[in-house]
TrEMBL record:
Keywords: DNA-binding. Pfam families: TetR_N. Residues 1-61 form the HTH tetR-type domain. The lineage of its organism: Bacteria, Bacillati, Bacillota, Clostridia, Eubacteriales. Residues 24-43 bind DNA. InterPro entries: Homeodomain-like_sf (IPR009057), HTH_TetR (IPR001647). It comes from Acetobacterium wieringae. One of its GO terms (molecular function) is DNA binding. This is TetR family regulatory protein.
Amino acid sequence: MNTRDKIYNTAKRLYLENGYANTPNTMIAKEAGVNLGLVTYYFKTKDIIASDMLNYNYETLYSHLLKYLPTDDELLQLITFFKLHFKLTGIDPHYDRFIYEMNKFDLLEKATRDGNLYELYKTLVAQNNQIASSDKGLTLDCAVTASFGVIRALTMKQYEKEIQISKEEIFDLCINQMFYSLKIDSNHLLIKSLISSANCTIDRLLEEYPQLTQVKNYLYIEDAAIVRKQ
């Protein structure tokens, strides 16, 4: 393993185990067995590593969901992804804390704009005939910002116990916000059907790929393979 990858994998492990805020570069350098200057040489700031972690995590989950979902149903893909995301934060406390910290330092939306989730939003806006062509760019930007603004606010308040709200309730509020921001007709029966389909998909996914319930199983273990359960 080269020096950059050694630093990167060490940082990812420490961010999950100790928390992003509790992991200074000095700790990363010591654990990786490298000079402190090399950490900042390869990674100018901590959030570069954290954003990449989050993006890799999202892309891993999304790629596995695609094994079970129709490739031309972007709305179902997006709803299923968010359902899985909130389910995993309720299962894995390390992941829950990491997501909280990513929200606290406002890195969630940034990471999302660099990956496939943003492309799903983009496609849904492009397909929506209720949005004028001249407004699609602005609508897309506002939809992503609004959706993740709601996720950020509710996730932080729930984690800090400022409000009594479940992961399920956060998910429901986020989906309602997403429909509103994307100017999609909020049909109760449609949403109910999509969520039911998402639940079935996630149950099957986690039954066949139980490693996904613990982020450490694939996020920082070198050459980790997510194997389908036989």
